[in-house]
Design brief:
By secondary structure, the protein is an all-alpha fold. It has one domain (4-167). The protein is built from 5 helices and no strands.
């Protein structure tokens, strides 16, 4: 698999952006852990947990998962079935990589389209969380950005796999 530092041009920019998104996802998970720790501490010391912990955890973890997807795609860290590739030639592994990149591209575009319409609905209906009254559509914005980046990462992966198939 090609490392981000080895990529040039648009592919390099996409790779670096996927790393930034993954780091943001990691920081978001750290923030979620801190909120939960704060809530537990507040419960122990004051007899009352931090309100809305579940809502923040739910939204934060969902966003973080989507922020990790582009990096997983471009680094080849997505789930693969080694049983199919263990004895396969390099060419077949590259072809399967092309197929996986096409599936990731289709998945990301379909989900981005559905999430876009979901965002519009959530905004139109002014849906908010029950306790903190946070607009639900706020979580859709970084998810959409991550899905668009996932599509770009899938295109880079497709290009890499295609080049590997031709080379073998």
């Amino acid at each position: 698999m090609v490392q981000a530092a080895e990529r040039r041009g648009l592919a390099g920019a996409v790779a670096r952006l996927t790393e930034g998104f993954a780091l943001a996802g990691g920081l978001l998970l750290v923030a979620v852990v801190c909120v939960n720790a704060w809530s537990i501490l507040a419960q122990a010391l004051a007899g009352r947990p931090f309100p809305g912990t579940f809502e923040l955890t739910e939204m934060g973890v969902a966003v973080a998962v989507f922020l990790f997807l582009p990096y997983c795609q471009i680094s080849g860290a997505n789930v693969s079935a080694d049983i199919f590739t263990a004895r396969a030639s390099r060419r077949w592994v590259a072809r399967l990589g092309m197929l996986a990149a096409c599936v990731a591209l289709g998945f990301s575009l379909l989900l981005a389209e559905r999430m876009w319409f979901g965002l519009l609905d959530q905004r139109a209906y002014h849906l908010t969380t029950a306790i903190l009254q946070l607009p639900v559509w706020w979580a859709f914005v970084p998810v959409l950005a991550a899905l668009i980046l996932l599509a770009a990462a899938a295109l880079v992966s497709l290009h890499d796999a295609r080049r590997a198939a031709k080379a073998s």
